[in-house]
Design a protein that fits this description.
- This protein has a seven-stranded mixed sheet with strand order 2-14-13-1-12-10-11, sandwiched between helices.
- It is of the alpha/beta class and 558 residues long.
- The longest helix has 25 residues, at 437-461.
- It has 16 helices and 16 strands.
- The two termini are 41 Å apart.
- Its EC number is 5.4.2.12.
- Belongs to the BPG-independent phosphoglycerate mutase family.
- It is an enzyme of class 5 (isomerase).
Length: 558
């Protein structure tokens, strides 16, 4: 078992709740609560099992917060995501996350004092600083103001030549907003040029067609970005980035703009990445930067022909994969999450089974355990990864691996070898992101079937269930006006919402093993995902550590 200093790992026994009950912890990914209408795929899907939990005993179902400050993000406008959500679920406390970590590092200036910035700054004297990332104020993967501050700070700390390679959004923000973002950055770069810094936009493209693929679904997306950013080659060449976006939007939306490069008067690309340069990927969210990070960092790489592999100094805004230690250099250190509920429970003898499919396996293990890979105690834990479908969009196989996950969880419960069986069911989020409403309805129904399979097993063994979610998505699939009505574009087409939401998520408790008198509290109105850890500890028969967020349950004497 891992050594953890002077921490006292022994948990107090709960005065009213027994030990020894099998507990199923089900996390429905992308499953928020919203008013019922035709664009709430969870409602339309008629999810009988989840509906029965909601319509059952009111003291055993409630809503909790899964976005903004409840999960460590800066503002209530910040949508939650799977990474910060699972961190909060497992840690039992709220840690500064993603954008907030970057905000703090930029505001304090510590970003320029860290090893990551010192590393890339070694290229400033003779090389170019390249900044690659999503140009957006959506706050999901990146933020425009952070890029602006980084441009200013890097120039003040020695960067003499800067090139920006941007990806247009249209997924987490309105389609068409990219033109304004480009004009804003162009203005900032012009101000830097007045101060003697050679600062320009070098390339661009839409996030879903250039660079920002994830889970190794389509390496051609990354290659298109590589060709423009590194090689300075693209099917479209322009002398002005704003004009490029306007022109290319005539045949594509922001998400799918084809790659382009900016060229000089000699038709030569102004910013290919070459030996001696520094590169920073400025997205703070990890999933859609990992593939590019591999191409930039790995000497042995065979996913596509890079043509040339420049000797650069590369750093991410954050470390994008703690298990792979990728990238090896980063500007902002991750939150140091210690004493997670998983570690406490293992130290107290709780045998744990965790399972999901590939796209969410890391969330129910690595992120749940505080960005820590591996087991706390392999004798007490078993983690199972079910391979996700690859090479196709998830709306084409919307059931994903929900039933397989349900089956593995069922077998783990019925086998009576584990005290906690923890799963993530990914359908609502992964299919919801495709914007395919009919497929997302099928996805929600499949997730519901998996939940039923798990709850039926809990019924058989006299156990307890905790069903919750990490953030919203499938409950609202359309953009809305200020009155909440669906938005349509100028052609009368419904504007589909593909992003996460800021809606609350449900938590339900129950099962034959739940002690009489246990009910969800109504005196924790702002309860969020971080309150779930203490709740689960209580149901295992333990009192949570004093500094954990309060439990969501109480025991009322009958």
């Amino acid at each position: 078992m891992a050594s953890s200093g002077q921490v006292s790992w022994k948990l107090e026994d709960h005065p009213k709740l027994p030990k020894g009950k099998t507990i199923a912890v089900v996390v429905l990914d992308g499953w928020g609560e919203n008013k019922p209408d035709d664009y709430n795929c969870i409602h339309v899907a008629e999810t009988l099992t989840m509906d029965s939990l909601k319509q059952g005993a009111p003291e055993k179902w409630r809503l909790i917060r899964a976005h903004g400050t409840a999960v460590g993000l800066p503002t209530e406008e910040d949508m939650g995501n799977s990474e910060v959500g699972h961190n909060a679920l497992g840690a039992g406390r709220i840690f500064a996350q993603g954008a907030k970590l970057v905000d703090l590092a930029l505001a304090s200036g510590k970003i320029y004092e860290g090893e990551g910035f010192k590393y890339i700054s070694e290229s400033f004297e003779k090389g170019t600083l390249h900044l690659i990332g999503l140009l957006s104020d959506g706050g999901v993967h990146s933020r425009l103001d952070q890029l602006q501050l980084l441009l200013k700070g890097a120039s003040e700390h020695g960067a003499k030549r800067i090139r920006v390679h941007f990806l247009t959004d249209g997924r987490d923000v309105s389609d068409g907003s990219s033109v304004g973002f480009v004009e804003t950055i162009e203005n900032d770069l012009a101000n830097l040029r007045e101060k003697g810094v050679d600062a320009r936009i070098a390339s661009g493209g839409g996030r879903m067609y250039v660079t920002m693929d994830r889970y190794e679904n389509d390496w051609d997306v990354v290659k298109r970005g590589w060709d423009a950013q590194v090689l300075g080659e693209a099917p479209h060449k322009f002398t002005n980035a704003a004009e490029a976006v306007k022109k290319l939007r005539e045949n594509a939306n922001d998400q799918y703009l084809p790659p382009f490069v900016i060229v000089d008067e000699h038709n030569k690309a102004v910013g290919p990445i070459v030996d001696g340069d520094a590169v920073v990927t400025f997205n703070f969210r990890a999933d859609r930067m990992v593939m590019l990070a591999k191409a930039l960092e790995y000497q042995d790489f065979d996913k596509f022909d890079r043509v040339r592999f420049p000797k650069i100094r590369y750093a991410g805004m954050l470390q994008y994969d703690g298990e792979l230690k990728l990238p090896s250099h980063y500007l902002v250190s991750p939150p140091e999450i210690d004493r997670t509920s998983g570690e406490y429970l293992v130290y107290n003898g709780i045998r744990t089974f965790a399972c999901s499919e590939t796209v969410k396996f890391g969330h129910v293990t690595f992120f749940w355990n505080g960005n820590r890979s591996g087991y706390f105690n392999p004798e007490l834990e078993k983690y199972v990864e079910i391979p996700s479908d690859i090479g196709i969009s998830f709306n084409l196989q919307p059931k994903m691996k929900a039933l397989e996950i349900g089956e593995r969880a069922r077998d783990a419960i019925l086998g009576l070898k584990f005290d906690q069986v923890r799963v993530n069911i990914a359908n609502g989020d992964m299919v919801g992101h495709t914007g395919d409403i009919q497929a997302t309805i099928v996805a929600c129904r499949a997730a519901d079937e998996a939940v039923k399979m798990i709850l039926d097993a809990i019924e058989q063994v006299g156990g307890i269930y905790v069903v919750t979610a990490d953030h919203g998505n499938a409950e609202d699939m359309v953009k809305r006006d200020k009155c909440g009505q669906p938005l349509y574009d100028k052609n009368g087409q419904l504007q589909i919402l593909t992003s996460h939401t800021c809606h609350p998520v449900p938590i339900a408790i129950g099962g034959p093993g739940l002690a009489p008198g246990v009910r969800l509290r109504n005196d924790v109105p702002d309860g969020g995902l971080a309150n779930v850890a203490a709740t689960i500890m209580n149901l295992h028969g333990f009192v949570a550590p004093n500094d954990y967020e309060p439990t969501l349950i109480q025991v009322v004497d009958n």
